[in-house]
Design goal:
Layout lengths: L5 E4 L2 E4 L2 E2 H8 L3 E5 H18 L3 E6 L6 H9 L3 E4 L2 H9 L7 E3 L6 H10 L3 E4 L2 H14 L3 E8 L21 E2 L4 H10 L4 E7 L10 H21 L5 E6 L14 H19 L5 E5 L2 H4 L3 E12 L5 E5 L8 H5 L5 E3 L9 E6 L8 E8 L7 E5 L20 E5 L2 E6 L4 H5 L4
Parallel strand pairs: 4-20, 5-6, 5-13, 6-7, 7-8, 8-9, 9-10, 9-11, 11-12, 12-13, 15-17
Antiparallel strand pairs: 1-2, 2-3, 4-14, 14-15, 14-19, 16-19, 17-18, 20-21
């Protein structure tokens, strides 16, 4: 199986030790399942290893991967901070009782209203993306009589060899200020002149689905060298360094498995040696795992509605969800592992495209999937859907979004209820 929280029993697929066919019958489909124990385990892998290997460190859950109040509660209980990329995510975190001092507010186009809302919520840190935002943060903090703690987002000029749409650390990026052009030095100098910005350090994020720690080594080398340059030229030594995202996850058997604890130990040693060599104090290290906290803790269940074969072309299996609850195949051609949950003991000899219900030719979940021959009423399971599925879901074709059901051993409970037709019209006047 693609993940060790997936197994089979009596011809049925189990997830987090629970029978997915029974869960589909209880809650209906489409249905997002989240394995709470897996989320907690993934949080602890980062928290325990970062505490162990770094002089000072804190993992921040990247909540754009999956944002809901129950998840913020779990992440807070496990001792992580979080980063948010919108006032909506910040609102949910605050509603969940997340400690605001451990919230870091991202975004490359924060409005004055966004900034004011975050300050009024008592957000811990702004990760400031550009010069215009820097001035706005200083002005709005001044109006409140506060000094706002902040990091500055810089682009180190690294290509992590991920999909173009999720690569964020190159010089030519909508995010951050580049080091290579000299603009980052001016950015830091400007921040240090402001009365109401308390600059604590710098931030970089090179992309998503990173399997090779060499990317983090390269990022750390560039950022530590820049910290040394700041110390020499401006007399300022950054006390915090945020290296951005976490590690990649396995969507299919061909994806590599990452020993995160081992990789973090190696990154910590690299940073320790780099700091010593450059003659700077080893900064507090932040990382922003999102996908690797929640992706393999998620599974989506659908009900097959129809099957057809076009001779000489291909076969299709249509399900009761699609790009409204999982747009990643339409956006990125993302690979997934898919099973027929009620036919796990049968031979998978029917190769098909799993298509969704939307009135859109590109509404597909996966192509060239080998399954037992699907029939109407079968339960189809898509694995590793905890990240960027619910958070990217839409109401295209006025389709209500599925619920999130949390699994905790023998207990299952609704964290986010199923959207209704009434919800779709509730905001209309």
């Amino acid at each position: 199986m693609i993940c060790d929280n997936i197994s089979t029993a009596n011809g049925h697929l189990l997830f987090g030790g629970r029978d997915t066919v029974e869960l589909a019958g209880k809650y209906g489909t489409p249905l997002y399942l989240m394995d709470e124990r897996r989320v907690r385990r993934n949080c602890r892998v980062y928290k325990e290893n970062m505490d162990k290997h770094f002089s000072s460190a804190l993992p921040l859950y990247a909540s754009k991967a999956l944002s809901c109040k129950r998840l913020y509660e779990i992440v807070a209980q496990e001792g992580l901070g979080t980063d948010v990329v919108s006032p909506g995510e910040l609102y949910l975190a605050k509603e969940a009782g997340f400690p605001m001092e451990k919230v870091f507010f991202h975004g490359n186009a924060k409005t004055d209203a966004d900034i004011a809302f975050a300050m009024d919520c008592g957000v811990g840190f702004f990760i400031i993306d550009n010069m215009d935002e820097l001035r706005a943060v200083d002005r709005l903090a001044g109006e409140r009589g506060i000094r706002q703690k902040a990091l500055l987002r810089l682009t180190p000029g690294i290509d992590p060899h991920t999909f173009e749409a999720v690569a964020t650390g190159k010089v030519d990026s909508k995010f951050g200020v580049p080091i290579e052009t000299g603009q980052a030095m001016d950015f830091v100098a400007a921040a240090l002149e402001l009365a109401h910005v308390d600059l604590r350090g710098i931030h970089a994020h090179v992309g998503s689905q990173v399997f090779d720690s060499a990317v983090f080594y390269d990022t750390a080398d560039i950022m530590l060298s820049f910290i040394a340059d700041l110390k020499r030229e401006l007399g300022y030594e950054a006390s915090m360094l945020n290296l951005g995202g976490g590690y990649g996850v396995r969507y299919t058997e061909s994806d590599p498995a990452v020993d995160i604890g081992q990789e973090l130990a190696a990154v910590a040693a690299h940073i320790r040696e780099g700091s010593r060599r450059l003659g700077i104090q080893e900064p507090m290290i932040l990382m922003e795992p999102g996908r690797s906290i929640v992706a393999d803790a998620g599974m989506t269940l659908y009900t097959v509605q129809s099957t057809k074969t076009i001779p000489g072309y291909r076969s299709y299996a249509a399900v009761d969800g699609g790009m409204t609850d999982n747009p990643r195949y339409a956006l990125y051609r993302s690979a997934y592992t898919i099973y027929l949950a009620n036919k796990m003991g049968e031979k998978a000899d029917f190769v098909c495209t799993v298509g969704g219900r939307c009135c859109e030719s590109g509404d597909m979940i996966q192509e060239n999937v080998a399954l037992p021959t699907p029939q109407r009423g079968d339960i189809l399971a898509v694995c590793t859907t905890g990240a960027y599925n619910y958070s990217m879901a839409s109401n295209y074709n006025s389709i209500p979004r599925p619920p999130i059901v949390m699994l905790d051993g023998e207990r299952d409970y609704v964290a986010v209820r199923r959207e209704t037709f009434a919800d779709l019209g509730a905001r209309e006047v």
